[in-house]
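Thread title: Can someone regenerate the structure for this chain?

I was given the following input by a collaborator and told the matching C-alpha cells would be attached. They weren't. Posting the sequence so someone can regenerate them.
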Amino acid sequence: MGSRASRLLREEEIEEIKKETGFSHSQITRLYSRFTSLDKGENGTLSREDFQRIPELAINPLGDRIINAFFPEGEDQVNFRGFMRTLAHFRPIEDNEKNKNPSATEPLNSRTNKLLFAFRLYDLDRDDKISRDELLQVLEKVDVEQKMSIRFLH
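Best answer:
Regenerated them for you:
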C-alpha cells in the first residue's frame, strides 16, 4: 500500500507539476506529504496560519513576506499546485535547463524569475518599486533579529 501522498496525487498531476516546476517525482510526493501534514483544515489548501506554524518561518525576520509570496493578491488559501510553483523559485538554478527546449517558457527557478520573486518580497505595496521605507523595514527586521541572536549567544 502506498503512502497517503501517492494515493491522493494522481500520476498525471505529478507529471504536470514536474514539467512546470522541475521537481522530481520523489520530491513532489515528499512535498505533497508535507503539504497535507500542514493542512490542518484537511481541505486541500493551506492558509497563512498553516504557514505560521512552521518554526523556521516563525523565527525568520522575513517569514511574513515569504508566507505572503505563496498567496496571490486577494487570496487567503493556496492549493498544492500554487505551493509548488512558489517553492520552485527556491530550487537551484540549472543553466542548461532552458537549452533543452528553446521554445519553452523560462523555468520558475531561472535567474530572472528568482530576481523578480525576491524583488516582490521587498515591494510591499506592489507598485513595482522598492521605496526607501520598504527597504528600511527589511533592514530593521534583519538588524533586530541579528541583535537578538547575538544576545542569545552571549
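Strands lie at 45-47, 77-79.
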